[in-house]
Design a protein that fits this description.
Blueprint: H1 2-22, H2 24-47, H3 55-70, E1 75-76, E2 79-80, H4 82-99, H5 105-130, H6 135-160, E3 164-166, E4 170-174, H7 175-196, H8 207-220, H9 222-235, H10 250-271
Antiparallel strand pairs: 1-2, 3-4
Helix pairs in contact: 1-2, 2-3, 2-5, 2-10, 3-4, 3-5, 4-5, 5-6, 5-10, 6-7, 6-8, 6-10, 7-8, 8-10, 9-10
């Protein structure tokens, strides 16, 4: 299993770095594709608990959010795409639910809206962060902070973990691993930012900024992993899917990264005075 996870990582990391560097429609395409799969996985998870969120409306809401961020100049009757589009999706999905009532139609409708709103709104912050000055370097600082913290938490947790962090949600996680992950993530992200600083401009990440961002992401983003674990525990699933061999589904892979993107975006805005 470890070899499969390692091989998947070796293939994915250069691809992600290349797409972040290219930005534009290249990055939008991979973000949209990955989040679309994540939303479909969310709908499939809920069906295991006898709910029936409509995937078509869930994907429509996701794409509406992403398109509004990527193409802010797109308008309808003088309004940005999100405003009339959101009204249309909300009303159309509720109308559809009236004619397809099953066990819990209100819950089905709410889940079809809540899932993509969470995944799409948070995930769109990858595009927002990339659109800031020196945004490519900031994306390549915020997202790796999650992976560095995860690796540190895994290694330290295996070696010294004794006290369970959230036994009912993720039995393998320990407080020792969490603290080790925060320390590892903060330290290594500072080093990564120093490396990027050799190429980035004055608005790019510095070692001190990398330390601060790494600390925030490492400390807070694991909540995203626990949130998806909560969903999986509710339905009795081990993974959200099997898109990435050894790593589970798309939602499994983006769970903490959604939080990292939001934290990274607002950290950079705060750092540069908005």
């Amino acid at each position: 299993m470890f070899r499969i996870r390692l091989l998947t990582t070796v293939v994915l990391v250069p691809l992600i770095v290349a797409l972040v560097g290219l930005g534009g429609l290249w990055l939008f395409a991979i973000v949209a594709a990955l989040l679309t799969v994540a939303v479909l996985e969310f709908c499939a998870l809920m069906r295991q608990d006898r709910f029936h969120p409509a995937p078509a409306f869930a994907v429509a809401l996701l794409w509406l959010v992403l398109l509004d961020v990527q193409f802010p100049h797109w308008t309808f009757l003088g309004q940005r795409l999100l405003e009339p589009g959101l009204a249309l999706v909300l009303l159309a999905s509720l109308t559809w639910q009236l004619g397809h009532r099953r066990g819990a139609p209100t819950a089905d409708w709410a889940l079809a809206m809540a899932g993509p709103l969470y995944v799409g709104w948070c995930g769109a912050h990858v595009l927002r962060l990339r659109g800031l000055p020196e945004g490519a370097w900031w994306v390549l600082t915020a997202l790796p902070a999650v992976w560095l913290a995860d690796s540190g938490a895994y290694l330290i947790g295996r070696a010294w973990g004794r006290h369970k962090l959230a036994p009912t949600l993720s039995p393998g996680k320990t407080w020792e691993g969490y603290i080790g992950g925060v320390a590892t993530g903060a330290t290594l992200t500072a080093g990564l930012a120093a490396l990027w600083g050799l190429r980035a401009g004055p608005l790019g990440p510095s070692p001190l900024a990398g330390l601060g961002l790494g600390l925030l992401v490492s400390a807070i983003a694991p909540l995203g992993d626990l949130a998806v674990s909560m969903m999986k525990r509710q339905v009795g699933a081990k993974d959200t899917g099997a898109l990435f061999p050894g790593h589970g589904g798309a939602l499994d892979r983006v769970d903490s990264s959604l939080w990292a993107a939001v934290i990274g975006y607002y950290f950079v805005l705060w750092l540069h005075g908005g």
